[in-house]
């Protein structure tokens, strides 16, 4: 097993963008929960399993929320979703948006591009 220490090319190399699920679990789940339902730590976080709401946002709205964040006032307290800015690559954002969509729509696989994303790509 020489390869173990050699750090030789692995099937999933370092350039491989993270899957939507991995990114979600690292960056979003602490507020939105593993399954899309707000956690106790962030009860005001949007329920991502609400399909009609998520569909009304569309891929663009979801992407915007991620990049710009979402301030929300709860009484005197500001409970915010952080702005992730350009921290994700375009490819990562696409699969992340796809993953968010899959939380409310079981017809979409976790790493599939969403209908909007496919249309957007075709239009580019
Ligand atoms: C610190 C807690 C926190 C984290 C981390 C967080 N969110 Fe949120 N998110 C919120 C809150 C709070 C809201 C509700 C904001 C509102 O009602 O305007 C929200 C709202 C949203 C919405 C709905 C936006 C809209 O326009 O209504 C989406 C989509 C979303 N989050 C996705 C994500 C994704 C994807 C991630 C990870 C990249 C993430 N969030 C990380 C707290 C968080």
UniProtKB/TrEMBL annotation:
Classification via SUPFAM superfamilies: Cytochrome c
Pfam families assigned: Cytochrome_CBB3
Segment forming the signal sequence: none
Residue segments, region Disordered: 105-124
GO MF annotation terms: electron transfer activity; heme binding; iron ion binding
Record carries keyword Transport: yes
Keywords (A to Z) from UniProt: Electron transport, Heme, Iron, Metal-binding, Transport
PROSITE patterns: CYTC
Ranges where the Cytochrome c domain occurs: 15-104
InterPro entries: Cyt_c-like_dom (IPR009056), Cyt_c-like_dom_sf (IPR036909), Cyt_C_IC (IPR008168)
The keyword Ligase is annotated on this UniProt entry: no
Protein name: Cytochrome c
Source organism of this protein record: Enhygromyxa salina
């Amino acid at each position: 097993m020489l390869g173990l220490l050699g750090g030789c090319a692995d099937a999933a190399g370092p350039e491989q963008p993270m899957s939507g699920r991995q990114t979600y679990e690292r960056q979003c789940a602490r507020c939105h929960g593993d399954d899309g339902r707000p956690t106790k730590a962030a009860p005001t976080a949007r329920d991502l399993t609400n399909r009609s709401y998520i569909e009304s946002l569309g891929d663009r709205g979801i992407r915007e929320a991620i990049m710009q964040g979402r301030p929300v006032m709860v009484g005197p307290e500001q409970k915010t979703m952080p702005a992730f800015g350009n921290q994700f690559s375009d490819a990562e954002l696409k699969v992340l948006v796809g993953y968010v969509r899959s939380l409310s729509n079981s017809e979409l696989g976790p790493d599939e591009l969403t209908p909007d994303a496919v249309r957007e790509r075709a239009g580019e």
